Amino acid sequence: MLQEFKDFIARGNVMDMAVGIIIGAAFTAIVKSLVGDLINPIIGIFTDGVDFTSWFYVLGGQTFDTVDAAREAGASVFAVGNFIMAIVNFIVIAFVVFMLVRYVNMVKEAAEKKEEEPAVEEAPKGPTEIELLGDILTVLKTKS
After folding, report:
1. Which domain holds residue 100?
2. Would 31 be classed as within a structural domain?
3. Closest CA to 97 of 11, 30, 15
4. CATH number, position 79
5. Distance from CA of residue 32 to its chain's centroid?
6. What confidence tens digit (pLDDT) does each residue in 77-131 have?
7. How far is CA 35 from CA 27, 47, 138, in A?
8. DSSP 63
9. pTM value surpassing 0.85
10. Residue 9's pLDDT band (boundaries 50, 70, 90)?
């Protein structure tokens, strides 16, 4: 059973998946920064400075300045802005992953096409001079 586990872990797919998960976790931090630090301010320009993360409703009638303050007070919060930001994060991550997979597939297809290219067939060689001379000699002998 231990040997089976070692064989399972040693397979390329498991190792590829582990590397993908680690890189994905690191990549998520980059995307969150991209969305929070670059995309949100651009969206704010078009929405008169509205910050989506500050868009929330407190269920129960209380008022708070921030989502964090409401949560610390134990209030039930309907955080619409955080949900929208999660959607934007997902779309950006999904698009970048799509572009990476697309690029990897193009590289794979190019490599497969290169392997599949048939070897250039050499043109059939004609008869040698000796064979031609032998044929001429045979024809001359039959005519005489």
Report:
1. 2-117
2. yes
3. 30
4. 1.10.1200
5. 18
6. 888 888 888 888 788 878 877 888 898 889 888 888 877 766 667 777 788 888 8
7. 12, 16, 88
8. -
9. no
10. low
